Amino acid sequence: MAYRIAIASSNGESVDQHFGQAENFLIYEITDNDINFIEDREVEAASNGKEHSDIGLSRVADTLQDCKAVFVFKIGMKASRYLYQRGLKSFDVDYSLHHIFNILLRNQKKKFIKNYLSN
Q: Could you give the angle at the alpha carbon of 66 between the alpha carbons of 64 and 71, nearest 5°?
């Protein structure tokens, strides 16, 4: 089963942007065996530099509504809760994109084995 993720990265190599300051998210589709880049999606930052506005959070959540998860360098509790209420799980990580992809693909293989190959 395929799903999409959003990653806050300015360089395409590491998760290096705070959620509220991100002006773009890299969108990837995760399948059972592969990860495909979909697009570099621009957003208007959710924060004015000090705090998130409800309008800003709503704008970003709407823009990422086709994603299941958002990977960011940092995210505040208010923003994380807001995304969760909209069906988006948020993860604040200090990883390379390569590391995230390895974890997601490994998880997909475990699900496949559990669902289709185990008794």
A: 50
- Structure-block tokens of residue 41: 């999606």
Tokens of 63: 């823009």
0.85 surpassed by pTM: yes
> Is the pLDDT reported for residue 112 higher than 60?
no
CATH superfamily of 3-117: Dinitrogenase iron-molybdenum cofactor biosynthesis domain (3.30.420.130)
For the stretch 61-98, pLDDT in tens is 999 999 999 999 999 999 999 999 999 999 999 999 99
Q: Cα 69 from chain centroid?
A: 4
DSSP string, 48-78: -SSSB-HHHHHHHHHHTTT-SEEEESB--HH
For tokens 């709503």, what's the residue? 58
How does residue 119 score in pLDDT terms, banded at 50, 70 and 90? very low
Q: Which residue has the tokens 């086709």?
A: 66
Whether the CB-CB separation of 92 and 73 falls below 8 Å is answered with yes
Q: Where are the domains of the chain?
A: 3-117
